[in-house]
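Figure 2 data, in text form.
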Amino acid sequence: MLMFILTACGHENEHAVHSANNQQAENINKNVSDTTVTTIENRQSESPNVHHEFSCLNSSITSMDTITLLLPDHYPLGLAIEDMNHAYYILFYPMNNDSEKNLYLSKVNGQFQLKIPATATGTIYIEGQKFTKKVFTSPGKYKILVADNLETELDNTYYFTCDVHFKK
């Protein structure tokens, strides 16, 4: 198993790296939105000598802002946001047909960027019932999770996290 150390938003995390399925990379574009997501068929950098790392460009947002995540060359395919009450909102997951439609994935200067509007909605389960709700509703700290598997402990999947403070 190949291991590497990554610094993301000031924290060092050890992640297991596995080969990405190119079909899943294509599915992220089809499932999120055919009209708002740039089609990306290959998640590798143009230059084999360039390595891009994960980072959050926003540490604080308001309801009018957009969160920008810089993604590594081989990024995880799931996206969720945890609120201050530990509720998880799933914005994108390859097996979820209810994914947020306003996510925008692009490649700028060779690095993938994912934009998440503060108006984003996510799928949340409350007492076994499935709901689609706006994520950023109350001021506080939210954790953004980009992971291959959103249904397991983080130690068991390839992931990145960062915190964003929401101000109304």
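Caption note: The mean pLDDT is 74.
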